[in-house]
Structures are given as structure tokens and as C-alpha cells.
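As a warm-up, study this chain.
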Amino acid sequence: MEYVRIQSIQDPNFVSMHRLMSRIFPPEEVLAFELWEGPLQDPDIQVYAAVREGEVVGATEYRYQARLRVAMTDFTIIGRPGLGIGRFLYLNREKDLRRLERESGTESFGMFAEIYDPVAAGSLEFGQVLPMHPAVRREVLSHLGYGKLDIDYVHPSWDHEGKAVKGLDLGFRPADEGTGSVPAKLAADFLRWYYEALPNKPQEWRDMVADLENRQEIRLLPL
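Now compare it with the structure written out below.
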């Protein structure tokens, strides 16, 4: 497999990736095709495809916020089982994140990820690809060291309609395994930065972020 960066909606690999993404994720989680043009050209947004024999069989998007010293896994897509795609994406992403840290002269505090609750998302089929089932993904992320922030989490829908999307937890994998909490201000600052591109934000999200700003630490709970 090849780890190939995508930086244009004109890239045939992006066409394949977006088709795969639309098959696996629910509509409110998928940014419209034409709206990807700007993000793909953003040097801080890393979008890579796993390409096998000319076919996009997986993909991942991530970013590193040097000012906050945190990373974010936007998504990981495994399009076919039995090819080691998840491991391939994980190893290459980790290697690239270390590069981003070195280039910024910072050391990461940890990495955020939005993680589906398999009970709340039980009706989602995720494109009939078993490795993408919420229960499987959640267990994998737990093995990698993620916990979930002890908050009732919502996020703005990526379809720009401003809906509050529920059924997910905000996960965090601390760089130091002994870390049992996340500074509430860090979580609030991160969420404001991460969702600044979405102009329509639901009141539930605004209330959640405001509540974070009034707290000191947020516990990390097991997944």
C-alpha cells in the first residue's frame, strides 16, 4: 500500500475517498464534495489515502495544533477488511505527527478524537464494513490509549445546517499514560478552534463549550 496525500478535489484519489466516506458515514458527518476544496489546500490539514493497486481502500485526516500542543484525528476509514489498513494508517499517521511536532518545536500533550457510542449509534450500518462498526472502532481506540471526556458531548453537523449531532463521545489519548484528566480550558479552546470553519453552531454546542470554560479539569473515563 501507498500512503498518498490528497490536496485537491480534482485528484482522482479524492473522488474515490469521498465516495467511500459517503458510503460509510451518516450524511451529517460528511462535508459536501465541493466544500472540500479549501480544507484540502490548508497546509495544516493532513488528508492521506491508503492506495492499493490503484484503489483507495482507506483514508485518514488529522491535524496538529502547535499552539495548543494537541492533535486531532478527524476520521479513519477502513474500506475493506483483512488488508491491515487500520494498522497501516495508524503507523504512517503517527510518524507524520512526530514530524509535525518537530517542525513546530513543540511536544504534544495528546490527541483528541470523536468516538461513536455503539449503543447510541446502533442503527448506523457504516457501509456494511465490519471494521467500521462503532463497537469495533471504540475497542480499537481504547486499546490505543483513548479515554472519553466526562461531558455530555454534541458537535455541529458538517452539513452546515447547524444541527446538534449526538451519539458520540469526545475522546482523548494523553501522551503521558498516567494523565487522568484534561484541562477544561484546553478542551474549550480546542473545540472553538476545531469548529471555527462551521458558521452555524447549535445552542447545545455553545452551552457545552461555555460550561467547559467554567470548569477546571475534565476527567478521562474508560471507553
